[in-house]
Amino acid sequence: MEKKLHKRINEIRAKVRSVSKFFKDDLFCYASERRPPSHRWFGMGPARFGTAIYIDPLGTHAWNAVISGQRCWCLFPPDTPESLVKLKPGEGCEHRSEAIIWIIFVYPKIRRSDWP
Known about the structure:
There is one protein chain. This protein has 4 helices and no strands. By secondary structure, it is mainly α. It has 2 domains: 1-69, no CATH class; 72-116, no CATH class. It is elongated, with a radius of gyration of 18 Å.
């Protein structure tokens, strides 16, 4: 992940289409200009690249774009109990927060017809 992307943002912005009307509000304009929070990230990697399962920094919402390949998303209603989507004790390994571990252990369960 690249947190200093803002140094090249104008160059990149020129190559990307304009921002949708749904994303025009920029609440970071209220943050301190001397020390703005990190809020622009760039991830790049080889085939099967993934990240740990996480909540966006600062609890923000992400606007993601895939340049090449595809990305798998699993979205749940906000009221879904964590116990249904988290690994159970003993599942996984020392890298329990890695997305691939979640896909191996939890994803097959949520695909079953008897999953709540």
